[in-house]
Amino acid sequence: MFKILSYFAMIMVLGAIFCPRATIDYIHTVYEAVKEKTGFNDAKKELENKLENEVDSAISNAVDEGR
Q1: Max Cα separation, the chain?
Q2: Average pLDDT, rounded, for the chain
Q3: Could you report the per-residue pLDDT of 10-19, keeping only the tens digit for each?
Q4: Distance (Å, whole) CA 21 – CA 4
């Protein structure tokens, strides 16, 4: 197992040296796939919606108190 990982690491290093743009694109693709598979985007959207609702309610409360 370690031997396979060391070969993979060596290939990634060689790719980063000789073809950096393709290596960056590959890493980005893998990163996006992992985020999608783990549900990161859904959790992020849910958190953004919750935060937006809290900000809206805080602004409404501040406006109501100012009247």
Answers
A1: 70
A2: 84
A3: 888 888 888 8
A4: 24
Q: Which two tokens stand for residue 46?
A: 């849910």
- Tens digits of per-residue pLDDT, 25-45? 888 898 888 888 887 778 888
How far from each other are the two terminal CA atoms of the chain, in whole angstroms? 68
- Tokens 């937006």 locate to 52
Asked if residue 46 lies in contact with residue 39, where contact means CB atoms within 8 angstroms, the answer is no
On whether the CB atoms of residues 27 and 19 are closer than 8 A, the answer is no
Give residue 1's identity as a one-letter amino acid code.
M
Q: How far apart are CA 11 and CA 23, in angstroms?
A: 10
Collect all residues with Cβ–Cβ distance below 8 Å to 16 and sequence separation of at least 6: 23
Residue 61, pLDDT score: 86
